[in-house]
Write a structure and sequence with these properties.
Alpha-Beta Plaits, 6-stranded mixed β-barrel
Length: 270
């Protein structure tokens, strides 16, 4: 696995579990844009971050937040080692394949021992050498046939477990309040909205409409530092049509700078 040693440079915006590096470093590490990487210091501190490609970032640096610098206990400009984080599904698959291989090796060892036992029986028993050989072969084949599906079952069970685990892992580092509201929208819509929010800069929020009820989306005063994502009404995702008339308890998902997000929140909630 390739490792890149980079200079950790503090970024102005909050990190929210993200970092930025040059696209050439992404290619060197063999990872895709918005994949997870492992950040490690010489002192042994580690941190997992989602990496974003940014042509503005110098090749020998990685841009991370001041909060993440503190977690790693290094100063602005400190040295870190960056490697690809092996996805959970790959780890489970590798473990399952290793287990299946051990089962296969164990079956072969059992077959060998049965053959050796058959040779000993041949010396002291009344049965003919041909009968012993036939029985030994039958036992050996039976052990192999019984062991074969075990490996297949382990591999299938591991993949099923990995799929189930991955379904429950949130795509982005979102707040509990956002996740709670998204559960009402259904898995497909929730996954889509998580993906949009995860790719946005700034603070994310799910704001419940109170004071702004009765106004249309197009009538809202939204500062340029805020990006609206969508309107949710109960379990329905309505989008951002300017003619949508907001109702009390509608949820609006948005992202932006902290001050601008607070301004919009006060306007919607009252």
């Amino acid at each position: 696995m390739k490792e890149a040693t980079l200079q950790a440079v503090k970024r102005a915006m909050p990190g929210h579990g993200r970092a930025r590096i040059h696209e050439k470093v992404l290619s060197f590490l063999g990872v895709d844009d918005q994949s997870e990487v492992e950040i490690r210091t010489d002192e042994g501190a580690t941190l997992t971050l989602t990496i974003f490609s940014d042509a503005v970032v110098e090749e020998g640096t990685i841009r991370i937040s001041g909060e993440d610098l503190k977690k790693l206990n290094i100063p602005d400009g400190g040295k870190v080692h960056v490697t690809r984080k092996i996805p959970l599904e790959e780890q489970i698959k590798a473990a399952a394949e290793s287990t299946a291989e051990k089962i296969k090796e164990g079956a072969q060892e059992v077959g060998t021992k049965l053959t050796e036992t058959a040779g000993k029986i041949q010396k002291g028993a009344a049965e003919t050498a041909e009968q012993i050989s036939t029985k030994a072969k039958e036992l050996k084949e039976k052990v192999k046939e019984d062991a074969k599906p075990i490996g297949e079952k382990v591999s299938k069970a591991a993949k099923s477990s990995a799929d189930a685990i991955m379904e429950k892992i949130p795509i982005g580092k979102l707040s509990a309040d956002i996740e709670k509201n998204l559960t009402a929208a259904g898995p497909d819509e929730a996954k889509r909205i998580r993906g949009i929010l995860a790719g946005m800069e700034g603070e994310k929020a799910a704001v419940r409409v109170q004071a702004a009820a009765g106004r249309t989306v197009g009538n809202l005063t939204i500062p340029p530092e805020v990006n609206l994502v969508t309107v949710q009404r109960n379990n329905q995702i309505l989008g951002l049509d300017k003619d949508i008339i907001l109702k009390e308890d509608d949820i609006i998902y948005l992202s932006g700078t902290p001050d601008a997000v607070r301004f919009v929140t006060r306007m919607l909630e009252g």
